[in-house]
Amino acid sequence: MEDKIETADKKVLVDIVRLAQKRGLRGKLGGWKEFLDNHDKKFGANLSDPSKRSHEILTAFLKSFSEEEDLKFFDNIMRHHANQYMLEQLKDKSYESPEQVFFIL
């Protein structure tokens, strides 16, 4: 799971952190705001919006989770994003298919 987290897009990581916050999930280093207080001496939890944080901070927080249920939750979110990406790719290709061009003409 750590490899998946490290290679995930920032958008996916931000989504996972936000959903973890909503669920009140806590890793070995605490919840999101506790984690920020301990790992970012400059801003701490004052800037808690995950989208404003670096990829490294997001991955460090998510790697602090070890409960199987939490990891399955993260994996489901990653799979959801991968499925959305695939659908977008298929949709883009289908608009450019010869059948579509013929129908439009």
**Can you give the mean pLDDT?**
88
In quaternary terms, these chains amount to single chain
User: What is the total domain count?
Assistant: 1
Number of helical stretches of at least 4 residues = 6
- Our measurement of the CA-to-CA distance between the termini, rounded to an integer number of angstroms, reads 48 Å
Q: Decide which structural class fits the backbone.
A: mainly alpha
Major sheet characteristics? none
The radius of gyration computed from the alpha-carbon positions, rounded to a whole number of angstroms, is 18 Å
- Overall number of strands: 0
Give me the strand/helix succession: HHHHHH
Contiguous low-pLDDT stretches (5 residues minimum) are none
Tell me, what's the shape?
A: globular
- What is the strand content? under 5%
Give an account of the 3D structure.
The chain is mainly alpha-helical and 105 residues long. The protein has one domain (2-104). The chain has helices at residues 2-7, 10-23, 32-39, 55-63, 68-95, 98-104.
